[in-house]
Design brief:
alpha+beta, two-stranded antiparallel ribbon, 2 helices, 2 strands
Length: 88
């Protein structure tokens, strides 16, 4: 049961991270600014990004993609696979 709880938590984190990645990718085509308010458990975060600093947006995107890859690896170890939605 404890393993299932850990897997469920990892999947929740993965969803939050991939949602943020999609928002960051969309910022270049749809918006000049976006705000993400998210929470996971008792942790809350607010992220406000504008396209005025493209390097910052790209750095955030790369960082979140790295985190997504690491979470995917951990999920994969539970499921016996190793996959990620993002390659770079």
């Amino acid at each position: 049961m404890q393993d299932f709880t850990k897997l469920q938590t990892l999947c929740e984190k993965h969803k939050v991270i991939t949602d943020i990645i999609h928002e960051l990718e969309d910022i270049f085509t749809n918006d000049e600014k976006f705000i993400i308010n998210t929470s996971l458990g008792n942790k809350k975060a607010k992220l406000e990004v504008t396209t005025s600093d493209e390097a910052t947006v790209k750095a955030l995107l790369a960082g979140f993609k790295f985190v997504e890859t690491e979470i995917s690896k951990e999920i994969g170890s539970f499921l016996g696979t190793a996959s990620s939605n993002y390659n770079y």
